[in-house]
Automatic annotation (TrEMBL):
InterPro entries: MFS, MFS_dom, MFS_trans_sf, OPA_Antiporter, Sugar-P_transporter_CS, Sugar_P_transporter. Belongs to the major facilitator superfamily. Organophosphate:Pi antiporter (OPA) (TC 2.A.1.4) family. Pfam families: MFS_1. NCBIfam families: 2A0104. This is Glycerol-3-phosphate ABC transporter. It comes from the Bacteria. Residues 25-444 form the Major facilitator superfamily (MFS) profile domain. Keywords: Cell membrane, Membrane, Transmembrane, Transmembrane helix, Transport. It is a multi-pass membrane protein. Its main location: membrane. GO terms for molecular function: glucose 6-phosphate:phosphate antiporter activity. It comes from Companilactobacillus ginsenosidimutans.
Length: 452
C-alpha cells in the first residue's frame, strides 16, 4: 500500500541545526505517540460500560462476554500482523489510521441501532475494533526505536507506556459522561450510544493531533541516525542497520529465527497470566472470599491500575541505570518480588493489607509488561521491532490473557482459590526464570554483513 510507504531520507540539515532539531522533534514525536496510544485506550474497553445497558435490554452476560472476547482475540493476532506491516510503514500515517478506523467502528455502533441488537453483529464489530486497536503499539515501537538510543530507551519507553494507563483511566469518565450527555440532551437515540460516540470523536481529534506531531524516522527529517547522534550503539562494531526490510526478511531472518524473541514471547504468557489473572479475578475474589462490597473491590481494582504508573517508570529506570540497558535482570527481580505480594494478597484478610498488596502487585507487574515489549524492540534490528513486539503480544494475549480468563475460572471452580493463587505464584516464578535466561541480553542488534 503506497500511502503507507516510509518516507525516504532527506538531505542532511546543516551541522549546527542537528542538535536543536533533534531536541525539538524528539519531544514532539514522543508527545504524538503518547497521546496517540492513550487515544487507542479510550476506545479499547468502552464497550464494557455499555454492557449493563444491553443486559437491561435482554442480552445475557455470557452472550455479551463472548462478543467482548472478540476484542482480545483479534487484538492478539492484529498486534502481530500489524507489527509486520508497521515495520514497513510510515508511523506518522499508520498510528492515526488505526485510531481513526477504530473510531469509525465506534461511530457505527453509535449511529446504527441494528448493530447493538444482534450478538453476531456485535462480535464482528468488536473483532474489527480489536483488529484496528492492534495498530497502535507497533508504530509507537517504531518511533521509540528510531528516535531513542538503546541506553535511554528504557526510560522513554516506560514513560510512554504510562499512556495506556492514562487512556484506560480516562475512558470510564469519558464514556460515562457520553451516556449522561446523550440521556440529558439527545432525543431519538439510546443514551448508551454516547459511550461510543463521545470517545470516538475525542479519538479522531487525537488521531489528527498525532498525525501532525509524529515523524517517522530522524533520517526522514534530514537528521543522522539516533545511534550516531547519541554515540550509543547497540553493538560493539558500531554498525547500524538502516535498510527497510521486506516482510519475509523481517519474519524469517530476524524474528522467527531469533531465540530471544521466542523466550521473551514465552515469558509474556506468564506475565500476562499474572497481569490479567489478578486483575480480572479481583472483584470475584474480594466479594466472595473477603466479603468486600463491589464498590470497595472496584477501588482496589483502581489502586492496582494506578500503581502501574510509578511501577512502569521505576522498571524502565532500573533497567537503564542499574542494569545499563539490560531488561532481563530487572524483569527477574520484579517477577520474584511480585510473587511475594501475590502470597500476601491471597492471605490478607483486612482491606488495608489487601490494598497494599494489590498496589504492590500493580506496581511490580506493569514493569515486566513494559520490559517484555522493550526487550522485543531491543532484540532485533530496529526495522523489525514492531514484528518482534507483535509476536510477544500475540503470545501474551492468545495464551496468557485467555488462560487468565478461562483456565483460571476452571481452576477456581474445580479446585478452589488456593489452587488459583498457586497457579499465579508459579507463573511469577516461571516468568522470572525466563527473564533470567535473558540476563545478559542488551540491545544485541544483529547487523547483516552483506547489507541486506
Ligand atoms: O497489552 P497492550 O498490548 O495493550 O500493551 C500494554 C502496554 O503498552 C505494554 O507495554
Amino acid at each position: 500500500m503506497g500511502f503507507l510507504t516510509p518516507p525516504t531520507a532527506k538531505k542532511m540539515v546543516p551541522k549546527d541545526k542537528i542538535d536543536p532539531t533533534y531536541k525539538k522533534l524528539r519531544w514532539q514525536v514522543f508527545l504524538g505517540i503518547f497521546i496517540g496510544y492513550a487515544g487507542y485506550y479510550l476506545l479499547r474497553n468502552n464497550f464494557s460500560l455499555v454492557i449493563p445497558k444491553l443486559v437491561n435490554e435482554g442480552f445475557s452476560k455470557t452472550q455479551l462476554g463472548v462478543a467482548f472476547s472478540a476484542v482480545s482475540i483479534a487484538y492478539g493476532f492484529s498486534k502481530f500482523f500489524s507489527g509486520i506491516i508497521s515495520d514497513r510503514s510510515n508511523a506518522r500515517i499508520f498510528l492515526p489510521l488505526g485510531l481513526i478506523l477504530t473510531a469509525i467502528i465506534n461511530l457505527m455502533f453509535g449511529f446504527i441501532p441494528a448493530l447493538t441488537q444482534s450478538i453476531t453483529a456485535m462480535f464482528i464489530l468488536l473483532f474489527l475494533i480489536g483488529w484496528f486497536e492492534g495498530m497502535g503499539w507497533p508504530p509507537s515501537g517504531r518511533v521509540l526505536t528510531h528516535w531513542y538510543s538503546v541506553s535511554e530507551r528504557g526510560g522513554w519507553t516506560s514513560v510512554w507506556n504510562v499512556a495506556h494507563n492514562v487512556g484506560g483511566g480516562l475512558m470510564a469518565p469519558l464514556a460515562a459522561g457520553g451516556i449522561a450527555f446523550f440521556a440529558a440532551h439527545v432525543t431519538g437515540m439510546k443514551s448508551y450510544t454516547g459511550a461510543f460516540i463521545i470517545p470516538a470523536i475525542v479519538g479522531i481529534i487525537v488521531a489528527i493531533a498525532a498525525y501532525f506531531l509524529i515523524r517517522d524516522t530522524p533520517e526522514s527529517q534530514g537528521l543522522p541516525p539516533i545511534e550516531t547522534y547519541k554515540d550509543d550503539f547497540p553493538n560493539e562494531e558500531h554498525e547500524m542497520f538502516e535498510t527497510e526490510l521486506s516482510a519475509k526478511e523481517i519474519l524469517f531472518q530476524h524474528v522467527l529465527n531469533n531465540k530471544w524473541v521466542w523466550i521473551i514471547a514465552c515469558a509474556n504468557i506468564f506475565v500476562y497470566f499474572v497481569r490479567y489473572g489478578v486483575e480480572n479475578w479481583a472483584p470475584a475474589f474480594l466479594t466472595e472470599m473477603r466479603h468486600i462490597s463491589l464498590a470497595g473491590s472496584s477501588n482496589s481494582y483502581m489502586i492496582y491500575e494506578l500503581a502501574g504508573i510509578p511501577g512502569t517508570i521505576f522498571a524502565g529506570w532500573v533497567s537503564d541505570k542499574l542494569f545499563h540497558g539490560r531488561r532481563g535482570p530487572a524483569g527477574f527481580c520484579f517477577m520474584l518480588v511480585v510473587s511475594i505480594f501475590v502470597i500476601m494478597y491471597w492471605k490478607a484478610t483486612n482491606l488495608v493489607m489487601i490494598n497494599i498488596s494489590l498496589f504492590m502487585i500493580g506496581f511490580l507487574i506493569y514493569g515486566p509488561v513494559m520490559l517484555i515489549g522493550l526487550q522485543a524492540l531491543d532484540s532485533v534490528p530496529k526495522k523489525a521491532a514492531g514484528t518482534a513486539a507483535g509476536l510477544t503480544g500475540l503470545f501474551g494475549y492468545l495464551f496468557g490473557s485467555v488462560a487468565a480468563n478461562a483456565i483460571m475460572g476452571v481452576i477456581v471452580d474445580h479446585l478452589g482459590w488456593t489452587a488459583g493463587f498457586i497457579t499465579i505464584f508459579a507463573s511469577c516464578l516461571i516468568a522470572a526464570a525466563l527473564f533470567a535466561v535473558t540476563w545478559n541480553l542488551r540491545g544485541q542488534e544483529v547487523v547483516p554483513k552483506d547489507g541486506k
